[in-house]
Amino acid sequence: MPHYDAILVLSFGGPEKPEDVMPFLENVLRGRNVPRPRLLQVAEHYYQFGGRSPINDQCRALIAALRTELDAHGPQLPIYWGNRNWHPMLEDTMRQMAEDGIQRAIVFITSAYSSYSACRQYMEDIERARQAVGDKAPLCDKLRHFNNQPGFIGPNAENLRTALDQLPGSRVLFTAHSIPMEMARTSKYVAQLEEAARLVAEQAGNPDYRLVYQSRSGAPHQPWLGPDILEALNEEKASGTESVVVAPIGFISDHMEVIYDLDYEAKARAGELGLKMVRAATVGTHPQFIGMIRELVAERAAGLPSADPCRQDCCPAPIRGSGFTAISATPNSAEPTQVESGKRPRHE
Ligand SMILES: CC1=C(CCC(=O)O)c2cc3nc(cc4[nH]c(cc5[nH]c(cc1n2)c(C)c5CCC(=O)O)c(CCC(=O)O)c4C)C(CCC(=O)O)=C3C
Ligand SMILES: [Fe+2]
Fold first, then answer.
1. Strand 243-247, strand 171-177: pairing
2. Metal-binding among the record's keywords (predicted)?
3. 82, 194, 207, 314: which is deepest, by most CB within 10 A?
4. What lines the ligand 1 site, CB under 6 Å?
């Protein structure tokens, strides 16, 4: 049974001042098929909020709450924090862990659902950071995705009920980050979202609901998951709906994609259409959610076989330069992701 001596919280990262915005976006979009105008448009979203994303502060709050929870109930493990795209960068954190003599860490990733972006890409980030640090880098075991855990569903349902209390009888629009169709095809993303939406709706008293998407990126001709929240609002208006509750179950905190794309953009569209709209909160540091993280950590630290739906070859990367053409993953193979010969993975 492995012995763990730390927890690593791994997240997306976000800029904290205006000068951070462009270098942060360059990090996110390195090697990506995203047009420059889209990048500049998203930069404006950040500038509009003073160049600061709330996501890092939300990670700090999550870690503080988890610290208190672990101090009270164990296991007593130090918590480290690293990001994919902005400081504290994962590689620096990995180096610090090595210096501190950490040998094996449990990794909590701040994404509830599986997809290349939220699963495999983080595993690649970890491997790259470990290689950069060298021999002393800790082994890292990631916890499973938690889309259907009671500690995630419960707080989402509670937040949805709170929003529905403000606009009783509303139609519910659950939202999640759109991803390219090709990325959706190679992961359980949509099925996991459908399951979470169903469970949250059941626990919130069975409102009428739909699952829609937000924050679409990429080139316009490339197929991404839809409908987009803005289209969905138009459709709701056309079919006679008077009020909507938008519940971003795709995310765990009210970060930039939530406050810009929903509280600013979707709210404005609803206003133009004369639709009443309330946005439900994300789970954030809800005590039940923090308790869930502790339980997943404790289960792994105790060496219990943790049902981990992620195989060695899960959530493979779409291929660069081919408009997200599929990869040849080999199901049930214990080997790392295979890439069609002659094509290169987007990350090397
Ligand atoms: C599935 C998924 C999640 C949910 C799971 C998870 O939480 O990880 C997520 C979260 C987030 N996405 C975020 C920000 C951005 N995502 C972008 C672009 C992209 N996201 C994608 C997917 C996802 N993204 C994809 C397929 C792209 C296209 C480029 C690529 O193939 O990678 C871009 C580029 C500009 C643009 O939007 O075009 C930005 C700035 C932030 C930080 C917000 C803040 O700063 O507060 C967070 C938490
Ligand atoms: Fe996965």
1. parallel
2. yes
3. 82
4. 12, 14, 25, 28-29, 32, 34, 38, 42, 53, 55, 110-111, 115, 117-118, 177, 179, 215, 217-218, 251, 255-257
| 8 A C-beta contact, residue 281 and residue 313 | no
Q: H/E element holding 177?
A: strand 171-177
pLDDT tens by residue, 290-338: 999 999 999 999 887 665 656 667 898 876 543 443 333 333 333 333 3
User: Whose C-alpha lies nearest to ligand 1, atom 7?
Assistant: 111
- First-last CA distance in the chain: 32
DSSP-assigned states of every residue in 321-344: TTTSBPP---TT-SSPPP--TT--
Query: Looking at this protein, which amino acid is placed at residue 281?
Result: A
Cβ count within 10 A of residue 184: 20
Match 């519910």 to its residue by tokens: 172
**Do 8 and 106 contact (CB within 8 A), yes or no?**
yes
ipTM: 0.94
Q: What is the pTM of this model?
A: 0.91
- CATH classification number, 150-279, choose in 3.40.720.10, 3.40.50.880, 3.10.290.10, 3.40.50.1400: 3.40.50.1400
- Domain extent listing, the chain: 6-146+287-301, 150-279
Written as one letter, the residue type at 146 is: F
Alpha helices per DSSP H over the chain: 18-29, 36-48, 55-73, 90-99, 121-133, 150-166, 181-185, 189-203, 229-238, 256-258, 267-273, 287-301
What is d(CA 78, CA 101) in angstroms, rounded to the nearest whole number? 12
How far is it, in rounded angstroms, from Cα 327 to Cα 343? 9
Structural fold of domain 6-146+287-301: Rossmann fold (3.40.50)
| d(CA 73, ligand 1 centre) in Å | 34
CA pair distance 309, 131, nearest whole angstrom = 25
